[in-house]
Specification:
By secondary structure, the protein is α+β, with helices and mostly antiparallel strands. The chain contains twelve helices and twelve strands.
Length: about 450
C-alpha cells in the first residue's frame, strides 16, 4: 500500500455487463465506510464509464483497486488488453465515443499506463480538484484532451515478427464513417450477447475483432496526419467546421505493419461483423445494418491483410462506383409512410423518397423523365444509381454517419449537386433533403430536386 493510502482494496471482475453495477457498489461502499460521501457521485460515474469500456472494448477479466488517502481517492482498473483508449473525433450527436471525455470532465486527475500485457486506466477524485459542475463541467467535456495518441504504443509481444501490408487507394473518408458504424454495431452486439449468452460470438472473438480493426484505424489516423503535413488534403470547408470529421484525402496508400501470425484476427473481424450485420438486418440490434459499400470496403481491407500475410500482392480498392452497389439491399422500411409516398409518386415536380437501406421507394414521373428512366425502373434500386460516380463514396459516408449518429448537416437546406442520368450525363441540380420519422422509428428520406438553369 502506498505511504499516503489509509485504505486499499482490490476486487476482480469478469467482462460482463453487470460488472459496471457491481463496480459502482464497491466504490460507493468503500467511500461511505471511510466517510467521504462528497466523492461518491463523481467516483461512481467515472468507474462506471471505465468499466463499461473494459466490457465493451477490452473483453478481458479486470481488477478494480480503490486507494483512499486523506485528501483524495484513486481508482485503478487493470485489464489484459494492450489497446489503449482513444478519444474519437465524433460529432455532437454521436451516441458513442464520449466515455473517456466524461471521465476527464468529472475527475481531478486521470490517465492511462500501458503494461506489457494490458493497461491501467486510473482517475482521482479530491486532492487539488475544485468540484467542477454545471457549465464548467460541460466546457471541460467539450474541450476534453484525454487522448491516447499522446501515449506510447502498447509493446509488441516478445519475439513477434511483423509484416508490412499496403492497403492501396484506401477510401479514407468512407473508412472513418465505417468506423462509426463498426463502433455502434459491435457495442450493440456486446450488449446482445450479454442478454443472450447462447449467441455464437464469443468474447475472445470480439477481442480479436477489436484488435484487428484498431490496427487499421491507428494506421489510417497516422497516414492522414502525414498527408495533412504534406499538404495532400483538401482545404477545410468553413461550413463543415462543426462536423468534427478529419480533413482527409479522397484515398490514401495506407501502409501498416501487422504481426505475421495475425491473419486469423482479421478473419475473425470479418466473421464477427458479418454476424452483427445479420442480427441488424433481422432487427435484433438497435442499429441499422451497414450499406453494401460499408461491408465491401471492410471485406476488402481484411482480405488484403490476409492475402498479403500469405505472400499475395496488394490490390487496390476498386471503388464504390461498381454496378453491384445499385442493386436492391434487404432491410429498411417497408411501411408507415403510405400517404407521403403516394404524394411523391403524384408530384408535379422532381421528387424522390428513400428508406434507411438507401433504397428508392417512390419517385415522381418528372424526376424519372429528367434522368431518362421509367418510374418502375428506379423504384427498388439504391439511391447511388442517380449519384455521379465521383460522389458515391462521399454519399455513402454521409448516409452512414447519419444512420449511426443522426447527424443532419445537409438536411433542410439547399445543396447544389449534379444528378446522374441513365446515359451517363449529369444534370446540375439544387436538392433539398428532409427526413420524416414514424412511430415505429423508421425514417423516410425525401429529396426535392430542382434542375438549375
Amino acid at each position: 500500500m502506498p505511504d499516503d493510502a489509509v485504505l486499499e482494496r482490490t476486487i476482480a471482475f469478469d467482462p460482463a455487463t453487470l460488472s459496471a453495477r457491481e463496480a459502482r457498489r464497491f466504490v460507493r461502499s468503500l467511500l461511505l465506510e471511510a466517510g467521504h460521501e462528497q466523492w461518491v457521485e463523481s467516483a461512481e460515474l467515472a468507474v462506471s464509464e471505465v468499466v463499461t469500456n473494459v466490457v465493451l472494448h477490452a473483453h478481458t477479466t479486470f481488477e478494480l483497486t480503490v486507494r483512499l488517502a486523506g485528501d483524495h481517492v484513486r481508482v485503478e482498473v487493470v485489464d489484459r488488453n494492450p489497446v489503449l483508449p482513444r478519444q474519437r473525433a465524433y460529432d455532437d450527436q454521436a451516441t458513442t465515443g464520449r466515455g473517456m471525455a466524461l471521465v476527464e470532465a468529472i475527475t481531478d486527475a486521470h490517465g492511462v499506463t500501458p503494461l506489457p500485457d494490458g493497461k491501467v486506466v486510473w482517475f482521482c477524485v479530491g486532492g487539488n480538484g475544485d468540484g467542477t459542475a454545471g457549465d464548467d463541467l460541460l466546457d471541460r467535456w467539450d474541450d476534453s484532451t484525454w487522448d491516447a495518441e499522446a501515449l506510447p504504443a502498447a509493446p509488441a509481444a516478445a519475439g513477434e515478427e511483423a509484416t508490412p501490408v499496403l492497403l492501396k487507394d484506401m477510401p479514407a473518408t468512407l473508412w472513418f464513417a465505417v468506423r462509426r458504424h463498426h463502433d455502434a454495431i459491435l457495442r450493440e452486439l456486446s450488449l446482445h450477447r450479454a442478454v443472450h449468452p447462447e449467441c455464437d460470438v464469443t468474447e475472445a472473438d470480439l477481442a480479436q475483432a477489436d484488435a484487428a480493426r484498431d490496427t487499421i484505424y491507428t494506421a489510417l489516423e497516422a497516414g492522414v496526419a502525414q498527408a495533412r503535413l504534406a499538404g495532400q488534403t483538401r482545404l477545410p470547408d468553413p461550413e463543415a467546421a462543426g462536423r468534427r470529421l478529419p480533413d482527409t484525402p479522397d484515398s490514401i496508400d495506407l501502409r501498416l505493419t501487422v504481426p505475421s501470425g495475425s491473419a486469423s484476427a482479421f478473419q475473425v473481424m470479418q466473421d464477427v461483423l458479418d454476424a452483427a450485420e445479420r442480427l441488424a438486418l433481422d432487427g435484433v440490434l438497435l442499429v441499422a445494418p451497414g450499406l453494401p459499400e460499408v461491408v465491401a470496403v471492410r471485406d476488402w481491407a481484411c482480405e488484403q491483410v490476409i492475402s498479403q500475410l500469405a505472400g499475395g500482392s496488394p490490390m487496390a480498392w476498386p471503388g464504390a462506383e461498381q454496378d453491384r452497389f445499385t442493386d436492391v439491399v434487404r432491410g429498411g422500411m417497408t411501411s408507415g409512410h403510405e400517404e407521403r409516398l403516394a404524394a411523391v409518386r403524384d408530384a408535379a415536380s422532381a421528387v424522390v423518397a428513400a428508406d434507411e437501406a438507401n433504397r428508392i421507394l417512390a419517385v415522381s414521373r418528372p424526376l424519372a423523365s429528367l434522368l431518362g428512366y421509367e418510374v418502375d425502373e428506379l423504384v427498388g434500386r439504391r439511391v447511388v444509381t442517380i449519384v455521379p460516380h465521383r460522389f458515391r463514396e462521399a454519399h455513402v459516408a454521409g448516409f452512414t454517419r447519419y444512420l449511426a449518429t443522426g447527424e443532419e448537416h445537409v438536411l433542410g437546406r439547399p445543396v447544389d449537386l449534379p444528378v446522374l442520368r441513365r446515359d451517363g450525363g449529369e444534370v446540375p441540380c439544387t436538392l433539398r433533403i428532409d427526413v420524416h420519422g414514424t412511430g415505429a422509428g423508421h425514417r423516410l428520406i425525401v429529396a426535392e430536386v430542382q434542375p438549375q438553369g
